[in-house]
Each structure stands twice: as structure tokens, then as C-alpha cells.
Amino acid sequence: MSNAVIVVHYHELWLKGGNRRFFLDKLLAALRQALQGIAIERIEQPGDRVLVRLGENAPLAEALKRIERVLGIAYYAVARPVERSLEALCREAWEEIAPLPFATFAVRAKRSDKSFPHTVTEIETAVGRHLLDQLRAQGRDVRVQLRDPELTCRIEITPGPLLVYARKIPGAGGLPANTAGRMTCLLSGGYDSAVAAYQMMRRGGHLSFVHFYGLGARPGESSLHVASELVRALVRYQFSAKLYRVPFEEIQREIVRSAPEAARVLLYRRMMLRISEVFARRYRALALVTGDSLGQVASQTLRNLVAVEAAASLPIFRPLIGTDKTEILALAQHIGTYAISSEPFHDCCPVFLPRAPELSARPEQLAEAESRLDLAALVAQGLREATLEKFTYTNGRAESAGVIPALRTGERRAATA
């Protein structure tokens, strides 16, 4: 028996017209990187699908687990390699569909190897007739339905073994990783921002992350470990990531000393945007990403979102803006960040929380409150004290390269000055 073959059908790429080659190359590169460390005979692209031919003794379950996270894939399937004869094709097609429940079916063949002595129509007719005879012999009430059947038995005629499959596994969908440009996500440690990051990755964005953390937490409760684990989970979708870690409590204390109590949280967020923009520009990002959901908390009323956003010069993308919490939590479970965000940690935003937070701030009102602050000095403080953790995904593992200062020595001195 030949080695296993995984058939991959891509998602939106067929819509890309003249740019399709760019997206396909990115998808193929993502498949190769996702499958690093697994023996692969070859990856090929006959027509509008991709065939991943596994090597000798390659772990099929592990390969499927990794392909599940490759963005840009509509669905994939494990195909049965079949001897190059119509009789063997009929036999294996029956073995493939016999255990599956369905009331209507069709057979669809594609022939990339024109040397095979039967046409597509001949293959579909012969296999379909054989399957229908077998089903009737078992007394199953099943009929052929060429349009929108419950089950489709698919046949690939390739230069190697013939391939048969009928069990489709849903893929991650979206666009391949790193096809839309760079963005920087403000990562809180909670459920929302990690899901927002994934949503932008799924549209082809490559994200870096900025995490603001508080001091004085009890041992094991710092949000730093949560932020690192979230990026470790998310890097599986885009293969590399930077996490900028910014201590924020001293900056918060300065805001508390000088600003109106009701506006504190909004001023925290404006300061986070300013610091994140500096790192975003260093990363050559074109936009910021946040996990805001309209009306979810006091700082996310429409007026407050507009007032906070006025502090930024880069566009701010909010992919969860119309999403409710139940949908966010379900997606967090799906992408593997729910359990991480459920861990106890010390979130910096609730520190010095106002008793009656502002619900309807205006940009000029917040700018007036900030006039009592040395904004440049606070931004420089955040940059100077920030650290950087880099992550890569290779050989099926997300690895951290360790923590280093976010700025070089000369840059830290400049920030101090």
C-alpha cells in the first residue's frame, strides 16, 4: 500500500484572479512550515487542490492536527491510494463510503493524468453504478443526486496511485498567513484580544503584540505568563511573532495623581495606544488591533471608543465590535486560547478603577485631562522599561527565544532623554 495522501482544498483563493499565484505560494509555504519535522514525500498542486504525500512511517494523526491550523484551507481529507485500475477504484470507493450515513450521493472524478485509459465520465459512471448496486444489495434507501448530494465520493487520477476519499474535514478557512500585511495587537490576557488577533490572522494579517502588565501581583498571578502563553498558542497560525511587554503600573499611578477619577480607564487606554504605536511603527505595521466589543464594558461605549481612538494616528481594527461574549468564548475554545485566558492573573486595567466610570467622553475632554500629564515622558518611560519576547513555530512546536530589552541601549538612552 502506498503512503497516505492528504487532499487539501483551499478557500477563497480561486477568487483572486491574477493574484492567485501569490496566495497559492503562501499557502504552500504555510503547509511546508506547518509540517516541518514530518516526513513528506512531496507537496504538489494538480489543478485547484493540493496533494500532500506523506513519507514512509509519517504520523498521519499529527499531520492532520497541524493542517487543521493552516489558514486558507476550506477542507481536507485523507485519501485512499488505489491501484491503477477501474476495478480497484470501484472496490476502494465502496470501502470508503460503506460505513457512512447518507441518503443521496454522487461521484466526482478529476483526471490530472491523461494517460489513464478511462475518461472522467466513464470513471464516474462505472464507480457510481458499482456503489449504487452495493447499496441496494444491503437494502439501503439511497439514490444518486448529482446536485447538492449529502455525500460526494471524490476520485483523483494522478500520475501515481489513484486517490479516493469521501470524508471531508473542515479547515480553518480565511486567507493564508502573511498575505495582508503587518498589524500590532494590544493583547490584554483576556478572551477578547486573543480572538481578535486570530480573526485578523485569518484575513492574512501578520501580528505583533503589545502587553501591558501591572506590578505587585502575588506569585504565579502575573499576567505576563498568560500573555506569553497566548502568543505561544497564536503563533501556530502565523509561524512567528513578537511580544512587547510593558510595565504599566507606575504610568497608571501618574495618571491617577493628575487626572479626573471618572476618566482614568480611558486615559490608560489612550496611553496604551500611544506606546503601542511606537512599537507598531518599528514593526512596520499599518494598523492596530484591539478586542473591543461595542457596549461590553464602560470603556467600550461608542462615544468612549471614539474618544480613546482620537489619541492614535494609525487605523484601529476591531474585528469583534459586533460580536457578543458567547460567540467570543466559543471561538476562544476553538482556537485554543480559552483555557489560557481563564487562568488567574493580575490585570492592570482594574487597578485604581473609578467608582463611577465615564460613559460618554469626548476627545477634547480627554485631551484636556491629559494636559496635566507629561505625555512624552510617560511614553518614553513605557518604551524604556519594555522587554521583547520572540516566538517561532518550527517542527510542530512554539518556542520562545527568551526575553530581551525591547529597545537597544542607545534607544533606551534616547527615550530617557
Which helices and strands appear, and what pairs or packs with what?
Blueprint lengths: L4 E6 L9 H15 L5 E5 L5 E5 L5 H8 L5 E10 L3 H12 L6 E8 L8 H18 L5 E2 L6 E7 L4 E4 L3 E2 L10 E6 L4 H11 L3 E9 L9 H16 L1 E8 L1 H10 L5 H19 L5 E2 L12 H8 L6 E2 L7 H11 L2 H4 L21 H8 L4 H11 L1 E8 L2 E9 L3 H8 L1
Helix pairs in contact: 3-4, 5-6, 5-10, 8-9, 8-13, 9-12, 13-14
What does this structure look like?
- The structure is a single chain.
- With 417 residues, this protein is of the alpha/beta class.
- It has 2 domains: 5-170, VC0802-like (2-Layer Sandwich), CATH 3.30.2130; 181-416, 3-Layer(aba) Sandwich (Rossmann fold).
- It contains 14 helices and 16 strands.
- Strands 1, 2, 3, 4, 5, 6, 7, 8 and 9 form a 9-stranded mixed sheet that branches. It has a 7-stranded mixed sheet with strand order 14-13-10-11-12-15-16, with helices on both faces.
- α4 (120-137) links the parallel β5 (104-111) and β6.
- α3 packs across α4.
- The mean pLDDT is 92.
